[in-house]
Structure formats: C-alpha cells, structure tokens
Specification:
Rossmann fold; Nuclear Transport Factor 2, Chain: A; five-stranded antiparallel sheet; 14 helices; globular
C-alpha cells in the first residue's frame, strides 16, 4: 500500500481517537501512527488481514473470563458465551479484578478469548485416561488452568516457565485454581529432552513478537521491530527442537502464538514438517476463525472474532523412537492418611509425602511422574503443599485452604468484602473466631488462613500475593 509509505510517524496526529464504526482509510492513516510502519505494510498487503485488522486494533478490546469448574460461581453480568470454551464468556464491562476477593480465591481467571480455544482442541483429540501433559511456556497460567480444568484431576500437567519470577506467578495462579495433579517447574525447554516419549500432549505457546497485543498494550507496538520478529521465529524453532524427543509417538503438539507474523506461524509449521515426522491435525471450526494460507492452523483475528491476535496449529508426532534409557526413580516417604485426619479428609484419592519437613499431597499419577523426573528438573510447586511441622503441630500452607480435592476440618470465618480485601492486603483487624488456625472465606469460598490469638490474629496470607494497591475508601473497613 503506497499510501502507508507516504506518512511519517512524526507527522501523524497521535491524539485523535477513532470512532468505533466510522472508519475511512485516510482517517485510519492519521490515527494509527503508533503502529510500526513495517508492520502496517505487511498487514495491509496480506488479504487474510488487510485494513480491517488495522481498524480493529484501535477498537476497545473485549473482556473475557473463564470460571473455575471446581469452584462454581455465577456472579458476572454476562453479555455472551464463548462458543469454543466451556465455562467462558464475555463481560459487558471490565470490573476491577484486583478488588474482587473471588478472583483471589481462584473462582475465575480473566483470559483472552482466542487462547481459550485450547479447550475445544483438547476435546477434539483422543488422549489416554491418565494423560501426561506439558505446558512448556506456561506463565502466567491461564492456559495451564484451562488444561487442569479439562483434565478434571485425571492425569497430570507439568506447567513450566523458564523465568523464575514468572514461574512463581504461574505457581500462584495454579495454587488458587486448586488442583492436586499439577506440577510447576522452572527449566530451560532443553531439559525436557532428557525424557524420551514422556508426554501425551504438549502445549508450546511460544514467546513471540506479540502483535496480537497491539490493541491492549501500546508498549508492545513501541517494542516491535522486524529484527525482533525474525529473532522470535528462530527462537521458536529452537524451543520446538528442545522438547521434541519428550513427546510420545502419536502424542500431540499444540503450537500457538499471539502474533500475525507468518514467519512465526505457518512458516514455522512448515519448518517442523520439513524436519520432523508429524502430521497436521484438523482443528474444530467456529464462526470467524480463519485458516492460514497453507491450511495448517487457525488465526483468530480482531474484527473477525471477538479476540486479540491468536494463532494455533495441532500436530501429531509420527516418529518412532527407541531408547534403553531409564530414568532413576526417587523414593519418597509416604505419609499415612491417618496422620492428617484432624486437618482434612480427601474427596479424591491422593498420596501424601514428606520432603525436608514439608508435607505434600498429589494424585497417584502425579506422584508416579514426580518420582520419575524429579531429580532432573527444578520445581516450584509439587501438587498441594499441606504445610510444615512446628513445635505445636502442623502449620498449614495456603495451598491447603485453596485446594478443591479436600474437605478441611478447620473453623471458618466469613468476611465482608471490605474485611476480605483488608486480609488480602495483609492487614489485621478485629474478628471473632476460635483460637488457633482459622480459614477466612468470602461468599463461601476460601481465601486463606489466619492464626487467631484471642484479641488479635496473625495474617498468614502469602506476602508475595498480597494486594499492593491502596484499597479505595469505599472498600475499607
């Protein structure tokens, strides 16, 4: 498009706001100045995207959330269900999630609607009864919580994130979701190639140039460059190579990005097909979704679907691999269920074990996998952290309060919204309760523990999770 090349970013007016339904091309040029010029040139010349995508990138992004099926909730003003994901919907307006105690309780997760398509993909394929799943680049955890919901406590999900700080955020979100068949690791993807033929399903939501973030993150526009997008494509190929041997024969690899760049999407799929034995699988069809130019995967394009930018392609590995290597089994000290009979009872079969005076619980499949691969990986989270033994007995961990697989025997204290926010902020205040450990709840959902001392209590809510913003006056006690 010649017209685009004639305008300098420095001459364009950055302050005029676009009206949602009144576009013309000249007006568009005068207001999309903060979109990178090279990006504009590529998009408008591609018939799959064109100027309609450019227009959509200045519209208000949709707000979507997904409910936790293990913590049933019906509280939102829903304007539309999301057709490709169960328990997911668009909101009529954006609430303050930070100021909602139910968000901190893990009752729902705000997530971009296109990425929820993973739910439909998982339901379209045949997996074993106890599938072993890997979310390789998992932080902050939206897709991992979706996989955990799909599994319904069967099988196991290993959620991995290479950046330590992001791995802890990932562990936080999965802990709040409440499942006991979850492991969180912090490793370079190449570490997983030690485990040949291990995973039935691998999600590679690859780090990308982030063009799908341009609508809601103006910084993403400023940070984008042709060079960085090219670097991303090469890095994505390395990540794929790093994890390939860990996928079982006939196992599935779901490759996804949040970019519109063919070099990071369908061209990378062609690279996989050229270098590995695998097949492209059919994906579920929904209105508005577009096939890429090679027919490999699907694009979710703003303006055509109520989403940000999202691309995914499903592959099935067809490569036979034989290895005599056996991973060393770790022997753990299992704990009798009777040991915790005063604290909780199990809703589902769990195995409890001890490590360094910390107590944990997880499903049998998770326990077996952990024993197989434990020594080769760095772990942030192993199932449910029950707590640790102090001089006066068990000090419960917050995982215990948030877990959905246990019936807890601790006394509970229901809080008002101001009191719940004060607790989540790390504050202390007057409440009635029984001496010792109490669970604080909001609308019946567990938030965490306090230790009641009679005239006061110790706030045991995890410091790193606490609300950092100042609580508005209307929500103060």
């Amino acid at each position: 498009m010649k017209g685009l090349e004639l305008f300098s970013p420095f001459l364009l007016n950055r302050n005029v706001k676009l009206k949602k339904h009144a576009f013309d091309f000249d007006f568009l040029l005068l207001n999309m100045s903060n979109l990178p010029q090279d990006f504009l040139n590529r998009i408008v010349s591609n018939p799959l995207f064109g100027t309609d995508l450019v227009k959509a990138l200045d519209e208000i992004p949709p707000i979507s959330v997904r409910n936790n099926p293990f913590k049933l909730l019906n509280k939102f003003d829903v304007c539309e269900q999301i057709s490709w994901c169960e328990n997911a919907f668009y909101l009529s307006e954006r609430p303050s999630f930070t100021l909602d105690p139910l968000f901190h309780a893990g009752c729902y997760y705000p997530q971009e609607a296109g990425s929820m398509y993973i739910d439909a993909v998982l339901k379209s394929i045949e997996l074993p009864d106890e599938p072993v799943c890997l979310d390789l680049c998992a932080a902050p955890g939206g897709k991992s919580t979706l996989i955990a919901s799909f599994l319904e406590n069967k099988g196991v999900i290993v959620a991995n994130e290479i950046v330590r700080t992001r791995a802890h955020i990932l562990a936080e979100n999965l802990t709040k979701w409440g499942n006991s068949n979850v492991l969180v690791s912090c490793n370079d993807p190449k570490e997983f190639n030690k485990f040949q033929q291990l995973f039935d399903f691998v999600l590679i939501d690859a780090p990308c140039s982030g063009e799908g973030m341009f609508r809601k993150d103006l910084n993403a526009r400023e940070e984008w460059s042709v060079e960085s997008a090219g670097f991303c494509a090469i890095r994505q190929q390395k990540i794929i190579a790093d994890v390939w041997e860990s996928v079982k024969e006939d196992g599935y690899i779901l490759y996804s990005t949040c970019t519109f760049n063919p070099a990071e999407n369908e061209e990378n799929i062609q690279w996989i097909l050229d270098n590995y034995e695998c097949e492209v699988c059919e994906l579920p069809e929904f209105e508005g979704i577009e096939k890429d130019v090679n027919g490999f995967g699907n694009y979710f394009i703003p303006g055509k679907t109520k989403t940000e930018g999202f691309y995914c392609c499903l592959l099935q590995k067809k490569e036979k691999y034989y290895s005599n290597k056996k991973n060393k089994q770790v022997r753990r000290n299992q704990i009798s269920r009777n040991f915790f009979e005063n604290q909780f009872s199990e809703k589902t079969e769990l195995i409890s074990f001890e490590e360094n005076q910390e107590y944990f619980a997880c499903t049998p499949t998770t326990f077996e996998l952990l024993n197989t691969i434990d020594k080769d990986l760095y772990w942030i989270k192993k199932g449910i952290n029950i707590g640790n033994i102090q001089k006066k007995g068990l000090q419960p961990a917050i995982d215990l309060a948030l877990c959905t697989d246990l019936d807890l025997n601790y006394p509970k204290i229901e809080l008002s919204k101001p009191a719940a926010l004060a607790y989540l902020h790390g504050d202390t205040f007057q409440i009635d309760g029984v001496l010792g450990y109490n669970i604080l709840t909001y609308n019946g959902f567990n938030l965490g523990f306090v230790k009641h001392l009679g005239n006061r209590f110790n706030n045991l809510y995890t410091k790193e999770w606490r609300i950092r913003m100042n609580i508005p006056n209307e929500f103060k006690i």
